[in-house]
Amino acid sequence: MRRQIKLIAQNWHDSMHDKGFRERLVVAIIGIVIMSFCTHFFFDFNETHKGGLVMNDWVLKELPAENVSMPITVFMLSVLVLFIIRAVPNPPMLVTALIAYSILLIFRIITIAVTHFQAPPELITLHDPVSDLVYGSKSITRDLFFSGHIATISLVYLCLAKKTDKHYLLFVAFSVAMLLLLQHIHYTIDIICAPFFALGSLWLSKKMAHFRNIKIHSLQDSHAHTHSHTQRAQR
Question: What is the reported pLDDT for 229?
Answer without folding.
Answer: 41
